[in-house]
Design a protein that fits this description.
93 residues, mainly alpha, 3 helices
Amino acid sequence: MEAEISKDERIELRVTSTDKRIFRRAQKLSGDKSFSSFIVRVVKQKAEEIVAKNDRIIATEKDRKVFFDAVFGNSKPNQNLVEAAKRYKSKKG
């Protein structure tokens, strides 16, 4: 059995009559049972797209920074890397 979700939040907004007409028409064409469910569904879908795009951009920017810091930064190799390089060189030559 699915848990019932309490809908205790309310959003009020004002729109032009032209906007409302197109929203109503879209709601009827979409098959949504009510105007409210249509508005919530469409706004939620768009909001999720915006958030996902933003999260990808932030992740991409973070990855870019990590990459450029690793390649062009002034960090020195840690002891494990130094030892691994020595082992590699000793086996190679």
